[in-house]
Q: What sequence folds into this?
């Protein structure tokens, strides 16, 4: 089943409440995906932000010591077992460094995105990471009922395979193994056996080739075989697309202040002025996007 | 009587309406704050009128028998699925599979209905004032699907004996669905449905679609296709 949610703010007045709004959306979708949950929050920064997950053998103090010798200046923001490394150091330098440190895993990076995901009931996961305290411009969340791969942290959504990119998915893909092989040849790296990660990789690969998000998702309708409603985020953009059969649900609520997307209206029932929103269902095989 | 879903829980409200005291004169109910709840007003057996103020979730008023249910908002997947009789009136838009498998009664949708509206309908009348999504009236067996707006792709795919009337544009017809002659008797039958439901529209402006009946029997010529 799985639940997916997203909110894109058109008006800055809700920026400080972004995390709170997404918390309500994810809590209401807990029944669709009790196995694990995750969210990505976009909040622009001048520095790079690298979100990593600690796997137990290493704590954030060890990490601090380890990084001190290699990066000139950085700050750590630790929330539960995730740490955001905030630094001016560029990905070309930091990504290989993070790969060399045992006991950590990169969840996502960019100048805006921070990603948190973990196994467990979504209501507990959002509490653990204090999602309600986050502010930002747009955010995407996922509650997972596992089908394609194991219930682990790296089997959880959102998936991020490129700078400031992320993807959540309700559904399943059938041609992901073939596609994964092609994308690996193109230089995309995968961390799991999950089908959604392949779709995220497909999007990264296409964006790297200077295609727009809208064009990428439009060609995805041809190349990605299976059932899906996708919500995808970039530094300044946000999009939703459903496969042409459209068995997986989605509903959009749009007001002058925000666009919200969820698997069910229930997830949006608490949003401000939602009863005055334009509420509609995205059509099959049509890409809806906001921002750039 | 007002029933507020922020004060009462969904199961209790449904149970109350499903087991209404037969001797009670209290037959008008207003449900407030539905907040997208699923299966609201499902399986109502007795005569009553229920107005839901707000948007609801899946399977609203499913299996309805004698209640008149009005939704002042949008509905999720499968509104009035398997309805037996009486009316369900949605004032907003409907999600997928509206009126699925409906046996009787009338479902009126003031806005648009999304994909697979009237899938496998078995006698229900569905009137959509807006447009319908793709694969509407898929495998529809009997009843009438009346569309005042447009229809998306594959309308009436694998249809049996249900009748489709559409005033707007049809993007494409599904397998075995064809446009049929709009005879005087069809215009009269459609006008009767429209008038009965107080819908101001001229039946002669609709086109009629139905089964070409070519999928009813297996053709030996197609044996190589399987």
A:
């Amino acid at each position: 089943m799985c639940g997916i949610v997203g909110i894109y703010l058109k008006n800055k007045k809700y920026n400080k409440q972004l995390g709170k709004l997404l918390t309500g959306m994810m809590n209401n979708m807990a029944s669709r995906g009790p196995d694990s949950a995750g969210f990505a929050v976009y909040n622009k920064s001048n520095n790079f932000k690298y979100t990593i997950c600690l796997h137990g053998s290493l704590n954030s103090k060890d990490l601090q010591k380890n990084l001190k010798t290699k990066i000139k200046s950085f700050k750590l923001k630790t929330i539960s077992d995730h740490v955001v490394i905030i630094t001016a150091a560029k990905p070309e330098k930091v990504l290989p460094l993070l790969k060399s440190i045992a006991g950590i895993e990169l969840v996502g990076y960019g100048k805006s995105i921070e990603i948190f995901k973990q196994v467990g009931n979504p209501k507990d996961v959002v509490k653990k990471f204090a999602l309600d305290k986050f502010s930002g411009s747009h955010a995407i969340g996922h509650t997972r009922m596992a089908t394609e791969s194991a219930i682990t942290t790296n089997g959880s959504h959102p998936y991020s395979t490129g700078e400031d990119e992320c993807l959540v998915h309700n559904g399943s893909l059938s041609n992901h193994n073939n596609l994964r092989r092609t994308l690996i040849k193109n230089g995309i790296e995968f961390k799991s056996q999950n089908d959604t990660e392949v779709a995220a990789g497909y999007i990264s690969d296409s964006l790297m080739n200077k295609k727009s998000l809208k064009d990428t998702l439009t060609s995805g309708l041809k190349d990605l075989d299976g059932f899906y409603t996708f919500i995808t985020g970039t530094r300044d953009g946000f999009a939703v697309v459903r496969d042409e059969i459209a068995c997986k649900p989605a509903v959009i609520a749009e007001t002058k202040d925000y666009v919200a997307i969820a698997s069910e209206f229930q997830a949006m029932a608490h949003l401000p002025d939602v009863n005055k929103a334009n509420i509609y269902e995205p059509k099959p095989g049509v890409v809806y996007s906001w921002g750039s | 009587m007002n029933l507020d879903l922020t004060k009462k829980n969904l199961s209790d409200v449904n149970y109350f309406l499903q087991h209404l005291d037969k001797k009670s004169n209290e037959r008008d109910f207003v449900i407030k704050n539905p907040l997208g709840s699923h299966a609201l007003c499902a399986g109502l057996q007795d005569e009553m009128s229920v107005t839901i103020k707000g948007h609801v979730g899946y399977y609203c008023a499913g299996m309805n028998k004698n209640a008149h249910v009005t939704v002042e908002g949008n509905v999720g997947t499968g509104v009035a699925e398997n309805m037996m009789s009486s009316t369900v009136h949605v004032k907003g838009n409907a999600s997928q599979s509206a009126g699925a498998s409906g046996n009787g009664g009338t479902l009126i949708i003031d806005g648009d209905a999304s994909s697979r509206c009237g899938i496998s309908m078995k006698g229900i009348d569905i009137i959509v004032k807006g447009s319908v999504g793709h694969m509407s009236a898929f495998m529809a067996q009997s009843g009438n699907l009346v569309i005042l707006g447009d229809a998306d792709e594959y309308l009436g795919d694998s249809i049996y004996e249900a009748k489709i009337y559409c005033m707007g544009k049809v993007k494409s017809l599904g397998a075995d669905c064809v446009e049929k002659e709009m005879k005087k008797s069809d215009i009269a039958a459609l006008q009767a449905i429209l008038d009965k439901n107080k819908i101001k529209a001229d039946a002669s402006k609709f086109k009629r679609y139905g089964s070409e009946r070519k999928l009813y029997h297996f053709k030996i010529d197609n044996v190589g296709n399987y």
Remarks:
- The helical segments of chain B are 10-18, 184-196.
